[in-house]
Design a protein that fits this description.
By secondary structure, this protein is α/β, with parallel strands linked by helices. It has 2 domains: about 230 residues, FAD/NAD(P)-binding domain; about 120 residues, no CATH class. Helices cover about 35% and strands about 25% of the residues. The strands form 4 sheets. It has a 7-stranded mixed beta sheet with strand order 6-5-14-15-16-13-17, covered by helices on one side. Strands 8-2-1-12-19-18 form a 6-stranded mixed beta sheet. A 3-stranded antiparallel beta sheet has the order 3-7-4. A hairpin with a 6-residue loop joins strand 5 and strand 6.
């Protein structure tokens, strides 16, 4: 009897492999790839740029994101990239004259983390690779068909063309996937091809510099502090890691600011003596660093975060001005949601659930940040109103800052 049973076919269906193409190798893409791979997906992560690469980023990670990464088994990646910690946010307001301290918000519990993007992204990709994802760099991805359960193509897979950008001997390939995760950032080509491009175009741009071998007195951006300087239609954030100061800014295009980032920074210094002293001290011994990275137009708000078998995550899903490190936090949170919703495979119901949960969490937080940004971008009247509000209702300012930084 036992021999007969052994020869009988197994009545259980053979599991069908679930395949995902993750486009983009930043935090959103790497975490999405790691989470899906751990849920049994066959994951291919494709990064357009050769590795390593830099990105326009403030390099700060909000405290809660460190907890999420540990829960996802990516805590080691965070520690590999850690270059320092942040304990507080300090805002200087230069909208009504010289930069004037307005408020300081201290993180109540776990500190934030400073993570240079090249190192952080590489560590997260290594985590995704260990989880089972296959990673290709220097490859372009074009969405041919979003797939899904609409019209005559019921259950049709998504189709992408993958091209080797720097190797003409490798022919482009059309591949089918159960899920395409667009983690290709602001202006996402995948989102555009899926018909999710925003109806309006943002008018701001971002850029970043890293000042190495600094010997200043640490008056500006002391260790452990995220320094935020407001200029109305622009702001700059600074953070110190060892003997380096990383600086990222967002500027209204077409306003009075020069188009060249270095010249815009010098104009900012005329209204922020602290920044002017830092730049003068730095340039007394070495030249101004080259522009590290730029991005835009900002903000970026797609019509939805899903279309067929395409799901957007990270900046591709939506970009609001990240003041103190919440940008990468949103990317990680979105990747967690994506993994939970598509754990058992793609369905129209799972896509709808991801859309709903993303809007209720990340989308809601970004909407709040955009509202705060409208106040912080105001001119002299808004500057005086901000200072008065901080003095008269410090509890409200504290609560607003907690909501923004996620402390």
């Amino acid at each position: 009897m036992a021999a007969i049973v052994d020869r009988m076919p197994d009545p259980r269906p053979t599991p069908v492999p679930r395949t995902a193409c993750v486009v983009g190798g930043g935090p959103a893409g790497a975490v999405s790839a790691a989470v899906l791979a751990r849920h049994g997906w066959q994951v291919t992560l494709v990064e357009r740029q050769p590795l390593p690469r830099t990105k326009c980023c403030g390099e700060c990670l909000v405290p809660r994101a460190a907890v999420w990464l540990a829960e996802l088994g990516l805590g080691e990646a965070l520690e590999q990239a850690r270059a320092g910690s942040t304990r507080e946010v300090r805002m200087l307001d230069a909208r009504a004259g010289n930069a004037h301290p307005v408020w300081t918000h201290a993180f109540g519990g776990q500190p934030g983390v400073i993570v240079p993007r090249a190192a952080f992204d590489a560590a997260l990709r290594d985590g995704a690779r260990r989880a089972g994802a296959v990673i290709h760099a220097g490859r372009g991805v074009k969405l041919v068909r979003a797939g899904g359960d609409e019209g005559a193509q019921v259950g049709a897979p998504a189709v992408v063309t993958i091209t080797a950008l720097n190797d003409s001997s490798v022919a482009p390939r059309d591949l089918h996937f159960d899920l395409v995760v667009a983690a290709d950032g602001v202006g996402s080509a995948i989102a555009r091809a899926a018909g999710l491009a925003p109806t309006t175009v943002g008018s701001r741009a971002g850029w970043s510099f890293t000042f190495e071998r600094c010997t200043d007195d640490h008056t500006l951006a002391p260790e452990g502090t995220i320094e935020l300087i407001l200029f109305g239609s622009a702001y700059v954030g600074l953070v110190r890691r060892g003997d380096a100061v990383h600086m990222a800014a967002i500027v209204e295009r077409g306003d009075r600011w020069p188009t060249a980032p270095a010249e815009a920074l010098r104009m900012m210094a005329t209204r922020a003596p602290q920044l002017a002293r830092f730049l003068a001290h730095y340039e007394a011994s070495q030249p101004m660093p080259a522009l590290e990275a730029a991005c835009g137009p900002l903000p970026w708000k797609p019509r939805a975060v899903t279309a067929g078998r395409v799901a957007l995550v990270g900046d591709a899903a939506g970009y609001a001005e990240p003041y103190t490190g919440e940008g990468m936090g949103w990317a990680i949170e979105g990747a967690m949601l994506l993994g939970e919703c598509f754990r058992d495979g793609w369905t129209a119901a799972a896509a709808a659930e991801y859309q709903r949960r993303w809007r209720a969490t990340v989308g809601r937080a970004q909407a709040h940040t955009l509202r705060v940004g409208m106040l912080l971008r105001g001119g002299r009247v808004a500057a005086h109103a901000t200072r008065a509000a901080v003095k008269m209702a410090p509890w409200a300012a504290r609560r607003a800052s907690e909501m923004v930084v996620g402390a």
